[in-house]
Amino acid sequence: MADVPRLVVLSVDGMRPDFYRRPEEFGLKIPNLGRLVSAGASADAVESIYPSTTYPAHATLVTGVPPRVHGVYSHLASRDPTEKARVWHWFANALQAPALWDAARAAGLKTAAISWPVSASAAIDYNIPEIWDPAAPDPERDFATAGRHSTPGLFEELSPVLRPFLDDTNNTTTSDRLRTEAALELWRRHRPNLLLIHFIHYDALAHRYGPTAPESLAAIEEVDAEIGRIAEAVESDAVTLVVLSDHGFVPVERDVAPHVVMLEEKLFDRGADGRPVRKRLGTIHAGGSFAFYALEPPTRDDLHALERAIQKLCYTEAVGKIVDQPALEALGADPKAVLMLDASPGFYFSDRFEGALVEPGRDRGAHGHLPDTPGLEASLIAVGPGITGGKNVGRITLTQIAATLARILDLGWARRPGVEPLDLKD
Known about the structure:
Elements: E1 7-12, H1 17-21, H2 23-26, H3 31-39, E2 41-42, E3 45-47, H4 54-63, H5 67-70, H6 100-106, E4 111-114, E5 126-128, H7 143-148, H8 154-166, H9 175-190, E6 194-199, H10 201-209, H11 214-234, E7 240-244, E8 250-256, H12 258-264, E9 268-270, E10 276-278, E11 281-285, E12 289-294, H13 300-315, E13 319-323, H14 325-331, E14 337-343, E15 346-349, E16 358-360, E17 365-366, E18 380-383, E19 391-392, E20 395-397, H15 401-408
Parallel strand pairs: 1-6, 1-7, 2-19, 3-20, 4-5, 4-6, 8-15
Antiparallel strand pairs: 2-18, 7-18, 8-16, 8-17, 9-10, 11-12, 12-14, 13-14
Helix pairs in contact: 8-9, 9-11, 10-11, 12-13
């Protein structure tokens, strides 16, 4: 039916809005994103959530609420940093708020997702979730785990198209190309009303080389080409196409390791094999931030030792802000955290236990900081029926996007009080 709404959402992990606002400043050749900005509505900046990381942000993108409400406070599901292979929040049952796909399905619409975070086992009609075995030799090439958790039969249905890329032993096929191929074949076969796709190649390279390094900018140009292929494939179906991101990126140079000083202060033990052993405190690192948790009631000595550890961290000038529980509540962040540390410019927090407290960083880009940190703004571009070309919606919040997507699909969906969908028309 021609009047049935269709929506394709492309998340380019880590993409900053200044890339499409000022591409010439970075020497970027992104003709497809440029055309979409001209043809539709776009944001100057989208303020993310805290911590400004992929999994909590993608949960907000489909629920419209901050982590304190939807329950996904981190990429990691485990608060024990001594575990050899820490699991992530892959499964949709971690969400404590209804998701966009739930509302769409309840309205009788067909839903689909390719590698969307926190979507495994979700009530999605056609789903290949983002999930891997953290103990696998190469988790990035662990397609079998994603296949096992996909909609029954879907991975096999798409395999004839995907197999040449899955068998690429030279690793010349990017994850973004693979996800595009899966999405295009899924679209050709099933024409869902809602299709969510998560692109990650820029994020990986921006961490490794820095947000504006030549390698990272090349990834933006590559995903621009994939966006163009998808836009061309869906344009005859009167589809609304939304390109967005979860957070931005800032450059970093130095790796600071809170676990090193926590070991010094006896907040962790060492086992007979020399490996760290958890006592009563847990942690989660998120690049630009670092959270402390009381997994068991801490002793008075624990609290004094934690205070000394934080003082030592502050002496390094790596800590830009100590975010206490009232501040975490105001940010809509994790209510179970004792406190979080936010990194100073140029620093990021890692989970290592060995080495110096501060070392030259292997990463050159990071996120996870407070969402008002310059450079961490996320993106939004929307093109489709009824959307005004060239419209600038200014600075918005990540929590506004889910309600906006629901409006595009004509869904009557409960919104967070005080958060209105965007007006994408004149």
